[in-house]
Design goal:
Order of helices and strands: EHHEHEHHEEHEEEHEEHEHEHEHH
Shape: globular
Distance between the termini: 7 Å
Oligomer: single chain
Low-confidence stretches: none
Strand order of the largest sheet: 3-2-1-4-5-6-7
CATH architecture of the largest domain: 3-Layer(aba) Sandwich
Helix content: 25-40%
Number of helices: 12
Radius of gyration: 20 Å
Strand content: 15-25%
Number of strands: 13
Largest sheet: 7 strands, parallel
CATH superfamily of the largest domain: Glycogen Phosphorylase B
């Protein structure tokens, strides 16, 4: 059997950091197999990937520039901005083709960038949302998503294929018309050793997601920590921003940590507070920490994931509008540690690209 090395263009969606963090193990697997990887990203994902892979070429590639409304009415907000969103999606194939031609890419891997593909290449789409949760528009949104990902050559789902999984109905569709491969849950921490460090307190808060909701939740959490005096480390999730000291002595505010330090910090915590974004749950699934999640208002996918795992008593779900940290900490004592085993099929899937 002959093996060939490929030039592979990898581009994550610029919706928060989650799509950028979960391609880390994919990039690492491709590198270990001798492929040349070029990254395409913008804004916070660009800053994160440039810091994580300083040895790789990374090009700026504009994305969808998605934001959340302050009132939490995401559906209405997306409808109002649908023209700009559609134009950004439709321009992606041209952008991907131009980049692929410039770097002579053989393979394109798009993490949830709907139209980031080019003719004459192997085009791979990474997603955990074969079925989309969008309230009354779920069937329409799912059909539109399927229309786009069906134009790719393969679909990779970063989850388990079996009943024990993280995505639930989101990532499982028996009627997918495209060759479908399950990688197992992917985390940027997969190649690192877990060694806990003495934390500032028993609570670590992981902030993530698009603005303005990231900042709104940060303000709510910090206010609760000041009110209660609970010692906590608050990870803002803002690469490139200098850390600032906070007047309250019980709060250690950190704009961004490298992944090794994040892993050690979480490993040393008793309780983690975070959003219920899919990539965040994948990062935490192997750590066995007691988990409190606060879905981003209006984000129906996060609501679904929080409800799914809360029903299995694997975490505590709280609402941003009336977040009470003392109440959550009392409830989480009765929850199981959040832990989901991985099928770990990544290398079996990526090795195919060399054959």
């Amino acid at each position: 059997m002959s093996f060939s090395k490929r030039k592979i263009l990898v581009a994550p969606l610029d919706w928060g950091l989650g799509h950028a963090t979960r391609i880390v193990p994919i990039v690492e697997a491709l590198q270990s197999e001798g492929h040349e990887v070029v990254l395409a990203a913008d804004k916070r994902p660009y800053d994160f990937l440039a810091a994580r892979f300083p040895q790789l070429k990374i090009v700026r590639c504009s994305g969808y520039d998605i934001t959340y409304p302050e009132n939490g009415n995401l559906l209405l907000h997306m409808v109002k901005n649908s023209v700009g969103f559609y134009q950004a999606v439709e321009s992606e194939q041209r952008i991907a083709t131009q980049l692929a031609n410039e770097i002579k890419a053989d393979v394109i891997i798009s993490d949830n960038r709907l139209n980031f593909r080019a003719d004459g290449r192997l085009n791979i789409y990474v997603t955990h949302q074969l079925n989309i949760k969008a309230g009354v528009l779920s069937p329409v949104a799912t059909a539109m998503h399927k229309k786009y990902y069906s134009k790719f050559d393969e679909v990779w789902v970063p989850d388990n294929s079996g009943a024990v999984n993280i995505s639930g109905v989101l990532g499982h569709d028996a009627n997918c018309a495209v060759p479908l491969f399950y990688l197992g849950p992917q985390t940027r921490f997969s190649s690192m050793e877990k060694h806990g460090i003495a934390s500032h307190g028993k609570v670590v808060v992981m902030l993530s997601g698009p603005e303005p909701q990231r900042t709104l939740f940060e303000n709510i959490v910090v206010a609760e920590l000041i009110r209660t005096g609970i010692n906590a480390i608050v990870l803002q999730g803002i690469p490139g921003k200098p850390s600032v000291s906070y007047p309250a002595s019980n709060i250690k505010l950190i704009s961004h940590m490298n992944d090794e330090d994040i892993l050690r910090t979480i490993s040393g915590a008793e309780v983690v507070i975070s959003r219920s974004g899919y990539s965040t749950l994948c990062d935490l699934a192997s750590m066995g920490k007691r988990l409190i999640v606060v879905p981003t208002p209006g984000q129906t996918e996060q609501e679904y994931l929080a409800d799914k795992h809360a029903a299995d008593n694997l975490l505590v779900k709280a609402e941003q509008s009336d977040f009470n940290i003392m109440d959550c900490l009392e409830k989480v004592k009765r929850a199981k540690p959040f832990s989901i085993p991985s099928e770990d099929n990544l290398r079996a899937v990526t090795t195919r690209l060399s054959q």
